[in-house]
């Protein structure tokens, strides 16, 4: 159950066997079914979740009821509403399970303990947060400066699993385009 987490941590930092055991013992396995919510708007995010196996999606809902996909998480990825987790204020997003998933969750208390007691874990999380910030900035730049075709091309180049594991209406929302535009772009793309 901890294979993906072990790989993720050891791909970034070196942990001794003792540190790994201490780290692992702070996580709680959590199995979730498709369509369940890890987090709902209005709730406070109290856990970080690492995806051992599965797929999740975080999205906000505007005043007209439209979903706006913020992020996905697949095997080996972290997911949480960090704004709510760090401020302990109600979340403005929903995190929904897209396929039956196996998660490893870590509450704030245990997360803080690991950060304080295991320097390599703190370094690992700093790297993960830096990478998340870089990805967020790239996503913002793409949303503001790319055409629908360019967004789709980047998506299939960098995240091809999105198309195999995520409904197309959610892919369109993630790209900031309508499902009809995504359909047209995909048709043009396969025709080339």
TrEMBL record:
Pfam families, A to Z: cNMP_binding
Domain of life per record: Bacteria
Lineage: Bacteria, Pseudomonadati, Balneolota, Balneolia, Balneolales
Name the UniProt record assigns to this protein: cAMP-binding domain of CRP or a regulatory subunit of cAMP-dependent protein kinases
SUPFAM superfamilies in the cross-refs: cAMP-binding domain-like (SSF51206)
InterPro entries reported for this sequence: cNMP-bd_dom, cNMP-bd_dom_sf, RmlC-like_jellyroll
UniProt feature coiled coil, ranges: none
Record Gene3D superfamilies: Jelly Rolls (2.60.120.10)
Cyclic nucleotide-binding domain segment(s): 36-115
Signal peptide annotation: none
